[in-house]
Amino acid sequence: MRSVLAIVFLSLVPSAAVFGADAAAVQGAVRSWIRAHERDVLREFADVLAIPNLASDGPNIRRNAEHIAAMLARRGIATRLLDGEGGPPVVYGERAVPGARRTVVIYAHYDGQPVDPAKWTSPPWKPVLRDGPLEAGGREVALDAAPTGPEWRIYGRSAGDDKAPIVALAAAIDALQAAGIAPTVNLKLFLEGEEEAGSPHLQAVLEKNKERLRADAWLLCDGPVHQTRRPQVFFGARGVTDVEITLYGPARALHSGHYGNWAPNPAVALAHLVAGLRDTDGRIQIAHFYDDVRPLTPAEREALASVPDVDAELRRELALAVTEAGGARLAERILLPALNLRGLESGAVGERAANAIPTEARASIDFRLVPDQTPARVRERVEAHLRAQGYAITYETPSLDARRAQPKLVRLAWGSGYPPARTDMGSPFARALVAVTGEAAGGPVVRMPTLGGSVPMHLFVETFGVPVVGLPIANHDDNQHAADENLRLQNLWDGTAAFASVLARLGEEWR
Amino acid sequence: MRSVLAIVFLSLVPSAAVFGADAAAVQGAVRSWIRAHERDVLREFADVLAIPNLASDGPNIRRNAEHIAAMLARRGIATRLLDGEGGPPVVYGERAVPGARRTVVIYAHYDGQPVDPAKWTSPPWKPVLRDGPLEAGGREVALDAAPTGPEWRIYGRSAGDDKAPIVALAAAIDALQAAGIAPTVNLKLFLEGEEEAGSPHLQAVLEKNKERLRADAWLLCDGPVHQTRRPQVFFGARGVTDVEITLYGPARALHSGHYGNWAPNPAVALAHLVAGLRDTDGRIQIAHFYDDVRPLTPAEREALASVPDVDAELRRELALAVTEAGGARLAERILLPALNLRGLESGAVGERAANAIPTEARASIDFRLVPDQTPARVRERVEAHLRAQGYAITYETPSLDARRAQPKLVRLAWGSGYPPARTDMGSPFARALVAVTGEAAGGPVVRMPTLGGSVPMHLFVETFGVPVVGLPIANHDDNQHAADENLRLQNLWDGTAAFASVLARLGEEWR
Question: What is the SS3 string spanning A102-134?
C-alpha cells in the first residue's frame, strides 16, 4: 500500500507544484480551469448519475462504488473498497501530501433516496441537462451542451444528495493539478453507500477501520447551502429515525353501504392516531417528547442570530401562505425535534376510489432529533403514547385471530436511525474552514449551529473525538429526497472552488 | 314493435303452458332444470363478466349493453337499447303475458365499481371459477367444470354487483319455458349502465320513457341477501354522495430535515381535518348532520326487531374485535347516515417512503344518507363545517398564487349522488313478493326496512308513484366494490328459483 502511494505522489505532485499558494492564486486558477472544463465535468457527473443507487439494490450499488473508485484512482488517489460489514462497500481513498501537517477526511455518500418514477419528469437514473429549473420552464438540452448561465440544472437521483460533492472534489483535484498548485493537507476520502437507508453498518465500518481513518478532522459533505445561495458550514446535524404504522380494519374490504357505520374504518382510526401525535403547527403531542432537548450555547445563539432571514422569500418560492409554529424562523425551527408525516395510504382516492371500507391504513413518519434525544428514547415515548391510548403494539403482521382479539391493534415497523450531534464552533479547524470557504465564496459564509437534515455526524464525533464540520455544496432547491432531484450548475462550480480552497489553503490557515 | 312482440309470444308461451302453476310445481321444475343446466348458466355468466364494465369506458360499456340485449332477445324478450341521455344506454326489454293483470319492472345494473387490478388475485374481467372462497383456500377450476357444492364461487368484477340478477333472470325464464310454466305477470326489464357512477342520467331516462315504463310495481335487484344467507327483501335504500378532498403543502416536495417543522405538512392537516369530520365510533361531528334523520315507523321497528342478529358471526368472519358505536346492531346502524373514509393518499409509505414533506394530501369520502337527507344538504353542511374551521373552499386545482394567499385552502370535488328512499312495507305487492320469495326459499324471508347500500330507489318512487321493493340475490361476502368480487354459486341457483317464483307466482298472490 505504501509503495503504491509513493508512486502516486511522484506523478501527482510534481516538484514544480506550489505549496502554500495564496487565496487569489488558487481561486483565479480554479475558476479559469472550470470555465474551460465545464462539459468534461458534466460528462463525468452524468456517468455517475446514470447508475441506480438504492442501498438495497446490491448489484447496482456496487457498480456505483466501483465506478467512483475508478474515478478517484484515475486522479492518483489510492483507492479501495472497504467491506461494508453487511452493507454496501465504502469507497475509501487517501492521498498524503509531503509537508502537510494535518489530515482531513472528506465524507460523502453515493447512495440515494427511494424513487417513485411515476412522479419524475425524466427517469430518475437518466441524467438530463436543462437550461433552467423545471419549475421555471427549463428546457432539456443535450448533455454535452456548453452551459450558458448559472441556473442550468442537471436532473437525476442524487444529483444534489449526494453525488455532487464527489464530482466537485474530483474536479477540484484536476484543477489544482493543472495549475501546479499543491494541496496543503493530507486527504482521506470516505464515501458511504447506505446513508439514505439510515447507515445501519457505518459504526461497524468505522470501528473496523479506526486506524486507517485516523485524522485531525472530518468534513461532512452533504446537505444544501443556504437558501440565499451563500455557502454555509454546519456544526451539527439532526438525528433521525422512522416508523411505519399500520392499523387494521375488516379482514376483507367491505361495501360501505352495507357495513359503513358498523365495521370500524382503519383510515379514520389512523387519522385520529396521527392527529394525536402532533398538531398542525408542528408541536409534538407525545408526552415528555421535548424533555431531552438541550438548550443552545451562547455561541450557537450568536451564530443563529447572524443567519440571513430567508423565510419570506422561501414562503413565496414554495407557495406557502403560512408556516408552522406561527411564523417562527426556519433557522430556529430546525433546532427543535420534528415529526414529519411522509406518507398516508389507505383504500384509494380519485378515479380508483370505490365505496368500500379499507382493510388497513398505513402512515409513514420520520422524526428529526436534536441533542440530547436518541432514537431509542423516541421509540419508547411513541410507544408509551400509543399504549396510553389503548393500543396493543405488534411488530409483525398480525394474524386474523390477533385482530379478533385486540380492539385497538397497531403494527409498528421502526427503521434504524441515529442520534443528533453538535460540535464546537470555535475549534481551530472550524475557524480555518470558515476562512478558506469564505475565500472561495468571496465573502462570509453562513455558520449554522445545526443542519436541519441528518448525517451520522455523531458516529465520527464519538469514534474519533476530533472536530467534525459540515460543508455542503448543493442548492437548497434541488428537490433532494423527492422527484426531479437536480443540481444547479453554479453550485457545482462553486463547490469545486470550495474544495480547491480546502485542499490548497486549509493547511495554511489551520493553526 | 307490437307485431314483433306478438310473434315472440307465440313462440314463447305455447298454448300448452300452465298459467297459475302452484308453488311446489314451480320450485320442483326450476330446481331440477338448474341441476341439469348449471354449466350452461355459468358459461353465459362468464361471457358477460368478461366484458370490462366501467360506466366511464364508453366502448366497453356499450359492448356490455349489446351483449346483454342479445341474451334477452334470444329468450324472446322484445329488447332495445334506450338512449342514455348522455350516459351509457339502458337495456330495455318487455314481455307481455296474455291473461296477466299486473306489470312489474325488474331493475338491475350492468356497470361495475372501479377496479385496482394490482389488488386482484385474478384480473377483474377474466372470470375465474373456484371450488370455494379464496379466503378458505378455494382453488381455481376450469370454467366448464361441473360444480359439486354450494360454496363454489365465480370471481370477476360485477359477479355479485350487479350482473348476477341479469343471468339468474335469464336462467329462470329458460327454466319456466322448459317446464311449460307460464308467467303470471307482464315483465319489463330496465338494466342501467351507470349505477356505480351515481346514475347521473337515470332521472332523464325515466322521464323520457315514462309511458314505456308504466307498471304496477318495480323490483330492484341489487345488493346482497342477508348475512344468514336467507333471502331478504328491502323496502328502502340509503342515498349516497361522495367528495374528494385535497389539501396543499409546499409547491415542491421538501427534504423533511431541512424544512420539517417549518413548512406545513398537508398530510398532517388532512389527518386533523378527517378526524374532525367523524369520531372512531362512526359519529359524524358535522353540525346539524343528523337533523334531517326521519324516525322509524312502528312497522319498520317491528320488521327490524325480527331481523336475525348476525353481528357476532360477522365480527368473527371479518376479524373484528369490536364494531363502531359500542356494539350497536348492524341492522340498526344502517338506518343512520354514514361517513366512510374510502381512501387516504399522501407522499408514500413503506419501501417507497422518502424523508420528504408531501406537496398535497387527498382523502376520498362517501356518505350514506337516510330519509330525509339529501346530497345537496349534506354538501352544504360539510362545506359549512370546513368554513367554520377556517378553510377557504375551491373546486378547481388552485394556482400557486391562490396557495400563497390562503393559509387554509381545501379543494373539494363532489360526485353526483342521490337521496335515500323508503316505501310502504304493507302494500299488496310487498306482501305478495314476501310470499312468493318465501316459497322459493322454503321459509320466511328477512324483511329489511332499508338496504344499507344505495340504489336510486327514490327516482322510481318519485317518477312512478308505485311500490318499489328490493330483491337482492348476491351473497353478502361477495367482495362487492372491492378486489376479488365473486358470486357464491348457491346464490345464483337460489336467485334463479326466486325469479322463477316471481314470474310464475306473483300474479296469483298479488291481490
Answer: CEEEEEEECCCCCCCHHHCCCCCCCCEEECCCH
Q: Are B479 and B113 in contact (CB under 8 A)?
A: no
Beta-carbon contacts of residue B354 (< 8 Å; ≥ 6 apart): A113, A114, A116, A342, A481, A482, B253, B347, B348
> If we measure between CA atoms, which residue out of A460, A511, A507, A478 comes closest to residue A165?
A478
Three-state secondary-structure class, residue B264: coil
Q: How would residue A16 be classed by pLDDT, with cut points 50, 70 and 90? A: low
Which segment of A164-178, A368-382, A401-415, B14-28 scores lowest on mean pLDDT?
A: B14-28
- Contact criterion met (CB below 8 Å) for B184 and B508: yes
Reduced to 3 states (helix: H, G, I; strand: E, B; else coil), residue B225 is coil
Grid look-up 379514520 returns: A268
- B353 lies within 8 A of chain A by CB: yes
Type of residue found at A445: V
State how far the Cα of B472 lies from the Cα of B433, in Å rounded to an integer: 12
Number of neighbouring beta carbons within 10 Å of residue B465: 8
Contacts of B351 in chain A (CB under 8 A): 114
Distance from the Cα of B6 to chain A's closest Cα (Å) equals: 42
Checking if the pLDDT of B12 tops 60, the result is no
What is the Cα B500 distance to its own chain's centre?
Answer: 22
Candidate from A270-274, A292-296, A389-393, B264-268 with smallest mean pLDDT = A292-296
Nearest to A199 by CA among A339, A84, A59: A84
* Cell triple for A293: 432537548
Alpha-helix runs per DSSP H in A329-374:
330-333
Q: From residue A260, how far is each of A3, B398, B496 by CA, in Å?
A: 76, 32, 29
- Name the class of domain A239-293+336-414: alpha beta
Q: What is the mean pLDDT of residues A445-467?
A: 92
On the question of pLDDT at A222 being above 50, the answer is yes
What are the pLDDT digits (tens) for B49-79? 999 999 999 999 999 999 999 999 999 999 9
Q: What are phi and psi of B195, to 5 degrees?
A: -65, -40
The phi, psi pair for A218, rounded to 5°, reads -115, 145
Q: What is the pLDDT of residue B16?
A: 58
Please list the residue range(s) of chain A that carry CATH number 3.30.70.360: 239-293+336-414
Residue B161: CA count within 13 A, CB half-sphere: 32
CB B79 within 8 A of CB B69: yes
State the average pLDDT for chain B.
93
User: Was domain B2-128+155-235+433-452+467-509 assigned CATH 3.40.50.970?
Assistant: no
Looking up cell 446535524, which residue turns up? A237
Grid cell in block for residue B154: 365465480
**Per-residue pLDDT tens digits for A60-78:** 999 999 999 999 999 999 9
Contact B347, A342 (CB under 8 A): yes
Q: How many Å apart are CA A502 and CA A176, to the nearest integer?
A: 11
Residue B387 to chain A, least CA–CA distance (Å): 17
* B130 in contact with chain A, both atoms CB, cutoff 8 A: no
Residues 147-186 of B with CB under 8 A from A: 161
What's the count of helices (H) and strands (E) in chain B, helices before strands?
A: 16, 23
Look up the pTM and report it: 0.81
pLDDT in tens, A287-316: 999 999 999 888 888 889 989 999 999 999
The segment(s) of chain B belonging to CATH 3.40.630.10 are 2-128+155-235+433-452+467-509
Q: Cβ A344–B270 below 8 Å, yes or no?
A: yes
A136–chain B Cβ distance below 8 A for any pair: no
Angle of helix A266-277 relative to helix A375-388, nearest 10 degrees, comes to: 120
Question: A268 and B274: CB-CB below 8 Å?
Answer: yes
- The conformation of residue B284, written as its DSSP 8-state character, comes to B
The yes-or-no verdict on residue A1 having pLDDT over 50 is: no
